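Weekly modeling sync, notes
Attendees: S.R. (lead), two postdocs, one rotation student

Agenda item 3: backlog of single-chain predictions. S.R. asked that every request posted to the team notebook include the full sequence so nobody has to chase files. The rotation student volunteered to paste the first one in as an example of the format we agreed on. Action items at the bottom.

Example entry:
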Amino acid sequence: MEYILRTVDAQLRRLVDDVPAVAVDGPKAVGKSSTAARVARSTVNLELPDERELVVGDPGRLNRLARPLLIDEWQHLPVVWDQVRRAVDAGAPPGSFLLTGSASPVDQPLHTGAGRIVRLRLRPMSLSERCLAAPTVPLSALLTGDQPAVGGDSPVSLEQYADEITATGFPGIRETPPRSRSDVIDGYLATVIERDFPDAGHSVRRPTALRAWLRAFAAATSSLTAYTQILDAATPGEDDKPSKVATFAYRDTLERMWLLDELPAWGGHNHLGALSRSPKHHLVDPGLAARLLGVNAASLLDQPNPDRPAIPRVGTLFGALFEGLATLSVRVYAQANRATVSYLRTAKGTREVDLIVERDDGRILPIEVKLSSSVGDSDVAHLIWLRNALPGEVLDAVILTTGKAAYRRSDGVAVVPLALLGE
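Predicted structure, as returned to the notebook:
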């Protein structure tokens, strides 16, 4: 399969030039090995038993291989993490080691690597990486605070956005013909439940219960649904349901496997009043959520709000998954700009902004997401409220849509089709 350029490529090359060791984190099949291999001169794949045996029998072998050395799926032999850390302490030069991993081991205590190993997150492909349209509105420009002119025309239709949600941002899955793609995603999820969970240190006594909980979590995409409600939706009418402790273990393990990517609440300012502190629920890719719920692009368009399982939500499932696609994309672009992403919601729910992109100096870019081609005054009301509440701290204000053109409204809010937003 031909390599598809990723936003993270430039970040990785910069880090390889500047630091001794970089760990590329992300879920299985997200493209970590392919991305890291482009800058590596030699590779050790610890997913293979023979490779593990060689390293165990001859630990000095890692020091004799050409640098940068890629240690792929390092979590299968966690001792190499400390071996790399010690090599950095001993003066390893920039560009010595690359590590990729699909889970963080729990059965062996490890040094965090802080100050020695720089960690770089690789998420599924953003919309701009999928090359549906040439991005005309870079997030970097919106983060300057100069409120630049925005423009451009998007060729992406509502039907294509539905297709992109269900196709996922996993490179290999996207290459599968559409008629077989759902089978591939089903196999991916089955492997997660049946094999990867035990490998990550958590044996699942009832795989069907875990899958039901995942389905309920998927139905809660882009919401603040309480975990107790997710559990109730996963096991309606059942007395013998997983305990809260068991579901905590589900969440912890999925986070270690980089499959949960919940959006944190923004810290905010005291004079905004009390703000929500609960995370907004997201799987690492909205396509996984769509498949867990048994919906495809056609059903999102024809029946946009199936309740399987029933989770209270504002708006449609299509809207929630579109917000998930926007959140994934904005996170990829924000990381490239050394910014963080969160959301804002007042404790009483009277004000909410879908995404808050925050620079390292604390100034913010609020973004709303709307599954619509048109924007009215009510759609930007919370953006304008926040801009007025924090004068001098709001860099710009943006609403992401499914529309055809990027432009600025008379109130200064930038209206940007999601397909036109880039790094």
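Discussion: group reviewed the output briefly. DSSP finds 16 helices and 13 strands in the chain.
Action items: rotation student to repeat for the remaining queue; S.R. to check formatting next week.
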